[in-house]
Input
Amino acid sequence: MKAVFSRPSVEDMDFLVEVEKLAWSSPGKNIEACRQKLQARVESHSKGQSVVLALIDGVAAGSQYAFRFNWDENVNNLRSWDEYTAEGWTDKVHDPQGSTGFLVGVGVVPTFRGTKVIHNLRWPGEYKISELLIAATLDNLFGGGVRQVIANARIPAYCQHPEMDVGAYCAFRREDGRLFDPVLRFHERMGAKMLKPVPYSMEDKESRNAGCWVIYKQLFVG
Output
């Protein structure tokens, strides 16, 4: 199975809307972005915002959005995803000359989750679509001159441990030494470091509305 990754235009909006609808079905009001939000992100792409779309045999498989802004690098100032992304209206906070990249979300259609694919990107071998979306976006952002890339990660398995506070949960590891939460484990696998858990990120029932800031300092190395 081969996936083709590209930087989409407004002509690809139907693909992007389809990914968003299938990948982010959640009761959280800001989890699934509306068409207008997605179009605003794509249109700001020409000003340096990063958008990556994955297609398999002409079928939408995944998408990744990111933008640039100027972060003061003070971890104490990191609060919610809602605040830093203007509740998903990233065109409002995007600065094409910003020194920090911000990963908005990596969405993969459930049918293709966990599937390893051959691809048209620079890494040899097969990878999962989610891995390639992040890797390509990091290439775009670091290639554009940012110093670091941050994200406010969902922690969707937090609902399994309501007895833990968010800081303890984000540090919780399995017996094999890997982080318990699948999204945090994924970011660590891709090269990110954990920065700061926050008790409120966005409305997200699975994550108990919480999240964890992570940071990337380099490209994905495979």
Notes: The chain has a mean pLDDT of 94. Residues 129-143 form the longest helix (15 residues). The first strand starts at residue 2 and ends at 6.
